[in-house]
Structures are given as C-alpha cells and as structure tokens.
Amino acid sequence: MSSKPKIGIYGLTGCAGDQLVILNCEDELLDIVGATDIRSFPMAMSGGDENCPLDIVFIDGTVVQPKDEEMLKRLRERANLLIAVGTCAVWGGVPAMENKFSREEVKKRVYGPTGDLFKTITPQPLSSFVKVDLSISGCPIEKEQLLQAVASLLHGDLPRLPNYAVCTECKMAEYPCLLIEKGHLCLGPITVAGCKARCPSYGRPCIGCRGPVEEANISSEVRLLKEKGFTPSDIQNRLRTFAGAADSLQMESLKEGTNA
Length: 260
Ligand code: SF4
Ligand code: SF4
Known about the structure:
Elements: E1 6-11, H1 17-23, H2 29-35, E2 37-40, E3 54-60, H3 66-78, E4 79-85, H4 87-91, H5 103-111, E5 134-136, H6 143-154, H7 166-172, H8 198-201, H9 218-227, H10 232-240, H11 247-259
Parallel strand pairs: 1-2, 1-3, 3-4, 4-5
Helix pairs in contact: 9-11, 10-11
Bound molecules: iron/sulfur cluster (2 copies).
C-alpha cells in the first residue's frame, strides 16, 4: 500500500446512513482526508476517478438492483480491500426483511400494477456476490468502530472488532436485564456488540440492528423467548428485521425451538 492509500467510498441501495457517519466524523475528518487519497466519494464530492485501482473501498447498502450487483463486482475488481459497511451491506438489513416472499409478490403489494417498472433482485448482502475483507455492522455503524478500522487499515492491519454479544456490554454496564427481569423480547444475547448496549441503557430491548454475533446460539434464545410467552411469529419477525440474510439459520432454530 502506498503512503497515502487510494480510497473509494460508495453506496448501493440503502439510506446512506453509514456514509453519513463517515461525513459526521467532524473532528477526525480532516485527519482522514489528510492521511488518505480519497479518489471517489459520490455522496460528498463530484468528479471522482471511477477507473483507478483502489487500495480500500468502503461500501454501504444492499444489493437490490441488477445495477448494484454490476457496480459491486466492478469495485471488487478495482479494490485491494473491500469493506462492507453497515448492517445492510453485511446482513442484507431492512431491504432483505421480506425475502421470504417472492420479489414479484413484494413489488405487487407495495406498488400494485406499477411494480413491474422496478427492476429488483432478491436483496442480498455484499458477501453473496463478492469476497468481503472486513465487515463493520451497525444500523448505522458506530463512529468509534469506523475510526478504529481506518486507523488499523492505515497501518496495514485489519481491526479487531467485538465478537461477543450485546449482553456482555449490557452486563458490564450493570443495566437490569429486560429479558430475564421484565420479559421483553430482547435480542441482546445473539446480537453482536459494539453499541455499548445503547437500547437497554434507555430501558428498551435490543432489536438486533447490528446483526447476529458470530456463533449466535439462536435456538437457545428462541427457547428462552418462548418460555417468556412469545410466539414463533413474534420471534421470527424480530429476528429477520435486520438480518434477512441469516433467515434460513433463524428458521431452522425456530423449528428446533418448537421441538424443544
Ligand atoms: S437487557 Fe437484553 S442485552 Fe441486556 S442482558 Fe438482558 S437480554 Fe442481554
Ligand atoms: S442495543 Fe441492539 S438495537 Fe440497540 S443499537 Fe445496540 S445492537 Fe442496535
């Protein structure tokens, strides 16, 4: 990697919230700009170089349209390291929420007869199409994790991001457990940490916006939630809100939970 790595920052289909987190780095933004050679950031600058090789490309959003897939594959060819940024890019996010229905059915329900005008494919995360070198999840991502990742990448390393659950951060902060003590449908046990258990800190259950933690024991969470009186449909709807791409795993766990 040259002394100033060539960077590209792009968005596929999504709300662009993760690109906004980059722009909102305020105090650190000038340092990032000074330490890197940002070749393209269509959301923030015009006249980017759309052909040069890139050392690192950051991509948020989900692959929802054929043009997303084309753009993603082209960026993969150009980039040495490809970083998936945000839960949409890592897990499919909200766009993949209704993947249990066919695209035709979803388009018909949302747009009626004009649905055929929209060219979409089944929403998928980046890893369904290309090799992803690093995933930074979050809806949106946490600024601290982004800065940590950028600092590591500038030193030629990949950052070490949390591989434990939100529950760990929640317990360390000594918040009362909303699942065990209050019977709320909290996904903290199976959601990857990094937000400092933000929602439980406000007395709200985790809805899993950061996506599943590595080796999430979903069947155990499902059994626990059933004991608290939640139905498979309550659990299924909550689980698939942000991690549609993990749906097959979740459905298997729901079946296991039913048999338990
Ligand atoms: S409130 Fe949720 S995140 Fe916190 S310990 Fe309980 S289950 Fe885990
Ligand atoms: S507690 Fe859960 S829903 Fe809330 S920000 Fe953290 S991961 Fe997202």
